Amino acid sequence: MLNDQAVFFDIDDTLLDNFCAFKETIQEFFPGSLNELALKQLYRNFRQNSEKIYQNYLEGNRKHKTDRWRLVLQTLQQTSSVNTSELDDYYHLRQGKQLLSKEMQLLLRSLKKSGILCGVLTNGFALQQQNKIDQLMLNQLIDPNWQFISEEIGDAKPNVSCFRKVAKQLPKQIQRIYYLGDSYSNDIIPAQMAGWRPIWLNRFGDKGESAIIQAKNAEEAVVLLLSQLLSNRA
Q1: Which of 97, 119, 136 is the last residue of a domain?
Q2: Last residue within a domain, chosen from 57, 81, 97
Q3: pLDDT above 90 coverage of the chain, percent
Q4: Which of 70, 101, 116, 159 has its CA 20 to 30 A from that of 139?
Q5: 89 and 105, same domain (yes or no)
Q6: Contact status, residue 189 vs residue 182, Cβ threshold 8 Å
């Protein structure tokens, strides 16, 4: 049976390609400054700082979101050449142009057609994350009842309780929950600890436990996820 399985997705860097928006921002303001490998390393640091800022916010330390750009400018040795707000505004402009990849569109359509429950579990502010959901037109593919945003549920990744809180709201027949995410610490480890079955979309070659199922890109992630679903079909 397939209807006893559910598949949940992270948004940022999983369904939404934030690296592309970051790359376009750097190329717009600092053309030719970095090659692809250096851009990816810089983005990894940017992403980690973004996660820290959000975690600090949850803990009551209200750092401004543009702080993550100060470290980028320091790395590029461009600390006085551009305003961090300009960078952040342009980044969000480019982020708002990103679409759901063809691979993920096909995957979600196939899962919906097969009657497999699909959902979203994402960290972030409700309005901001809902805008991303709308941008990717996920309501056409994922029932809004199964779209969970951390601010709305009062819990956030990497808390294991966040995953358990979502699992308790699912239909009783759901026996296995797969989770596709990009962050080893925020997505993969807590999902596994909550009894979910994580698949790591490790686009940037980050280090983690080798036993974790992982994919280098969206195409690999689709193949791995479908093979897992079919192998557990009763």
Answers
A1: 97
A2: 97
A3: 79
A4: 159
A5: no
A6: no
